[in-house]
Amino acid sequence: MPRTWNNFTYEGQVLIDLSIIKNTNSITLNVDGLIIHKINTTLLNSQHNCLAILSQIFDEEKQFFIIRFTNDLGIGNYSLYLKFNGEIRDDVFGFYRSNYKDGDKIKWIAVTQFSPIFARRAFPCFDEPYLKATFKLGIGHYGNQTITSNTQREKIQLIRHEDDDWNGKNGKL
């Protein structure tokens, strides 16, 4: 998807560390309104071997994204990688947009509200009250933009992309 900053869409990726405590042939994540790039979905075991995926299914009613594997996943540690696209919505749940006036200009801001089950609108995750997990979130933005958070910032990293020059500013992460 091309980077277009006026249509309130974004690209994302998640890397989820899993501890499987009982053999299973599937992983079910919560997703609401996101487009998963199924071709990029990858599960690695602790030896960094890529495991064969049988199917990837959306259950829109239950807001599930179900990944089934060719073979059972045994007890152990795994890493699940997904790429996705989302929309910064115009409601007040998940990852949404708001605006304010600065003189004659309308300025847009992106806001999050993940409680109780709205993180699934921002990124694929385990988003059930009994499955809450800690996570690290990286936000890419341009140098003329400000990011604030209610948690401590871990790092700032300058990133450069061939199409990241917007108003002459380079991106930050």
TrEMBL record:
GO terms for biological process: peptide catabolic process; proteolysis. GO terms for cellular component: cytoplasm; extracellular space; membrane. Pfam families: Peptidase_M1_N (PF17900). InterPro entries: Aminopeptidase_N-like_N, Aminopeptidase_N-like_N_sf, Peptidase_M1_aminopeptidases. Residues 6-156 form the Aminopeptidase N-like N-terminal domain. One of its GO terms (molecular function) is zinc ion binding. This is Aminopeptidase N-like N-terminal domain-containing protein. It comes from Microctonus hyperodae (Parasitoid wasp). The lineage of its organism: Eukaryota, Metazoa, Ecdysozoa, Arthropoda, Hexapoda.
